[in-house]
Amino acid sequence: xxxxxxxxxxxxxxxxxxxxxxxxxxxxxxxxxxxxxxxxxxxxxxxxxxxxxxxxxxxxxxxxxxxxxxxxxxxxxxxxxxxxxxxxxxxxxxxxxxxxxxxxxxxxxxxxxxxxxxxxxxxxxxxxxxxxxxxxxxxxxxxxxxxxxxxxxxxxxxxxxxxxxxxxxxxxxxxxxxxxxxxxxxxxxxxxxxxxxxxxxxxxxxxxxxxxxxxxxxxxxxxxxxxxxxxxxxxxxxxxxxxxxxxxxxxxxxxxxxxxxxxxxxxxxxxxxxxxxxxxxxxxxxxxxxxxxxxxxxxxxxxxxxxxxxxxxxxxxxxxxxxxxxxxxxxxxxxxxxxxxxxxxx
Amino acid sequence: xxxxxxxxxxxxxxxxxxxxxxxxxxxxxxxxxxxxxxxxxxxxxxxxxxxxxxxxxxxxxxxxxxxxxxxxxxxxxxxxxxxxxxxxxxxxxxxxxxxxxxxxxxxxxxxxxxxxxxxxxxxxxxxxxxxxxxxxxxxxxxxxxxxxxxxxxxxxxxxxxxxxxxxxxxxxxxxxxxxxxxxxxxxxxxxxxxxxxxxxxxxxxxxxxxxxxxxxxxxxxxxxxxxxxxxxxxxxxxxxxxxxxxxxxxxxxxxxxxxxxxxxxxxxxxxxxxxxxxxxxxxxxxxxxxxx
Lengths: 346, 292
Description:
- The complex is a heterodimer of chains A (346) and B (292).
- Chain A is 75% helix and 1% strand.
- Chain A is mainly alpha-helical and 346 residues long.
- Chain B has helices at 2-32, 39-57, 64-84, 93-116, 126-129, 141-163, 165-175, 177-182, 187-212, 220-234, 239-259, 265-279, and strands spanning 131-134, 137-140.
- The chains are: A mainly alpha (346), B mainly alpha (292).
- The A-B interface holds A 85, 87, 132-133, 135-140, 142-144, 146-148, 150-151, 154, 157-158, 265, 269, 272, 276, 306, 308-316, 318-319, 322-323, 326 and B 35, 37, 83, 86-87, 90, 92, 94-100, 102-111, 113-114, 117-118, 217, 221-222, 224-225, 228-229, 232, 263-264, 266-267, 270-271, 273-274, 277-278, 281, 291-292.
């Protein structure tokens, strides 16, 4: 009797395993992980163009997009996977920039080397803030994240050591113009690749499943034995890590750090907007969102000029996207089974 | 001693204006469960409605008060029909509306900035620059008038909510939307009307703001957190709570500004918001933690 039961259950388990593997093989086939690698290869080889002429504009655009992709993918770990919308992530962008920027200004250590440390600092801060603010959810969390930006802005505006509201000018690189952008270019391209890779790994780990369980129903997730408080705080820390890292190098690239570059609401809105446009909670979504936002920005700045109209356009795009495509490009296409293979990175 | 009374009076005068600014926000949340982050930007729109007639023809801002209220209420109806009506069935409704109102705030800011630029503006009718002296203590008449008018408008609103039939329907919807609907309340109509009243109050507040503070389109980011702190401390949806919170926090902010430093005065609101959300998310008068 018992042996039969055991035999039965092993059979069931074996059958289930076989079934799961079939599904996994199917999704593996549908997924195009080669595409991001191809993109990375292209971007690594691209600066060779510099030998044939001046393509600094192209380099700048890709660098800019990569920076936004890092920020959006980082934000996506908290906002997309876990479902906690933060409008205060530019605080970590600022923390990374100020930490690395100040050391760079005083000791001359390149922010590219300092970026991981700046990221860790942002992550530690994110963990602590997450432990506090992630007690509340939904609109309360969004509002508390806004309050965080306001508090950080006043603190940085009045902190004399980091130059207050005037900020600090950083020494610029002494490379010839043609090659000046390249260190930052490679830093951002590799950071973007790393962020996308981590975000893929997170999505397919037990941790990522826990996060997605929290997003769909937190109380059920908790009763299923997930330590939601810890998971959420870790997700907050991880997303702050990437945003902080991007901030560190961005400061040196711009050659100045100032509160009104980092701690304005448009920076955090852009992170939210990229993820909503591309598709929250997907791996490819934030990258596609980053490409779209940079393209939009270029278009609006070229045609409209003034920054006020830029804000108006961002607001319009955000409202239209929320009303008509709340799932974003990747999400909407996937829902209708129309997602092209090369965009399926999950 | 007279110094302390002076600070107290300045704080109370500010509290009067802030309570009208927060009242509309509180009403809209109470009835519609919309956290309207666009409210402060609509207040600034109201301020411009008072500003241009004053600047061009010298019209007293207070004359524009009913005009601004009506115009903004109409804009409220339009916003509701365009944006929020279709979202009512969305699963993550309240979270969705936060993002949507945020987008609306950007649209309003961008439109105002594009038309009127980000120059600081203020209407300066004669009473805005005068002050009443009682012994050593002075009371700026502009803020005094603004405070008195705010309280008058809020009292009228409270009477309307308490004694009129429609006001009762609004309060019933605030307490329990489904039960109100079962009892024959047209909750959709209640939604539109209270949204219109809420945005109309933003218009009225804007007119008062126009001679109390210098304003420009991007100013609303600062007010979002300030008004949120009032509404959250008072208990989301409780108008009386919002008024009391406005007076409490304004007085505290006035003392912080006077004794610690002017830059830290607004910090009072932001820190208060942060702490209240985490310690007592239902606020002082909220009955249950609606948002937590």
